[in-house]
Amino acid sequence: MLEKPQIESLSTAHRKRLFFILAAVFLISFPVMVFYTAGYRIDLGSDEQTIVTTGGMYITTDNLEVDVYLDDEQIEQLRLFRSAYYIQNITAGQHRVVVQRPDLSTWVKDLPVDSHMVIEVAAFNMPAVPHVRPISKYVTATGTPVYLGIADAGEVLKDATTTVPILTTKSERITPYLINKEYEFVDGLFGSTSTTSRSVFKEMTDEERFRFATSSNMQSVGSTSIEAVIERGNIHLVTRDRELFAVWQGPTQSIPYYFCVTHVDATTTALRYGQHVADAIEQFSLATTTPLIAAGSRLCRPEIKIDHLRKDVYFYDFFPNSSDLVFLQLTDGLYVTEIDDRSWQNVQQIYAGTNLQVVIENNVIYVKDGPYYFEVVTKLEVER
């Protein structure tokens, strides 16, 4: 019979030796760990092997399957969370971050990374080719949209890709088809509000206004000398002096990061964030009614001007399910812009057209383009 192995305890001398070895390892590694977590690195790429300070970048994306690049180098690491990347060991200085996918519009920012700090940024990517879900008056028994009196399906919403197949027929007969209840609902949304192709900045003399959406609170006004306000949370969208602004109305400790910058002087701020940010800091530093907000080591502007590409605005609202993005109807189509104006504001077109009507209802963007109703689809599924 095999004997059971005998495990003997370490002798007192061996235990003392192991203790001192582990203590020495700890004492040696602890300063290294503190050095590393504080953001210091040894630059092995330099002949002198100098010590450099580093920071980090936290990037959230609204699409899961995208490619993220930092200074032209693709980030291969796994996401920190399902919709966020955390990039460490970034040397202090200006860095370009790019978020892209072939079927989506590209998002780009040049941002400063400071030593021992993590900078936040949120990317968004709208479909590069407009995607729409058609809403026809008639449908088949299986729900396929039907368009009567049209021979060529390519004539229906020809400037966009439809997310579902459609059926067109030369015949005007409605007998084989069913009435689409959603069409009646959407038609009622547009029918209850008259259309407009009038600038939101022009003087209004009634409450008809340009706006159809019911998803946000709005205070209608009769003159551009008084602010027209749309609210979502503590951010208000305000029209004033033929411009559109996002204004923070909440507590200082909750102000979104993109309202704030680390500020040393005007020249440095212009180089790091853009001349427009430096000008705004200077403007609000002299203001008495809307002064700068101090948040720790940062200075925060109380409002940010929204880029509308120097085009007239017919309609605006918060983008569905977001308080950081703004939906715009401009003279040549529908756009989404970010409020974050550090470096610049990314503006992406989601549908082109010059004679459109828009309703945002229950976080859905409904559009009427000529005789056609449809929903604008802003999320694309990736085929696997």
Overview of this protein structure:
This protein is an alpha+beta fold. The protein has 3 domains: 41-123, Immunoglobulins (Immunoglobulin-like), CATH 2.60.40.10; 131-180, no CATH class; 217-354, no CATH class. The chain has 4 helices and 29 strands. The strands form 7 sheets. A 5-stranded mixed beta sheet has the order 12-9-29-28-27, covered by helices on one side. Strands 15-16-17-18-22 form a 5-stranded antiparallel beta sheet, with no helix packed on it. Strands 1, 2, 5 and 8 form a 4-stranded mixed beta sheet that branches. A hairpin with a 2-residue loop joins strand 24 and strand 25. Helix 3 (266-273) packs across helix 4 (275-286). The protein starts with 11 loop residues before the first helix and ends in a 7-residue tail after the last strand.
Mean of all residue-level pLDDT scores:
83
Number of domains: 3
List unreliable stretches of 5+ residues.
34-44, 203-226
Approximate strand percentage: 35-45%
SS class: alpha+beta
**Largest sheet: spatial strand order:** 12-9-29-28-27
Distance between the termini: 59 Å
- CA-based gyration radius: 28 Å
Give me the count of strands: 29
Per DSSP, the total helix count is 4
Overall shape: it is flat
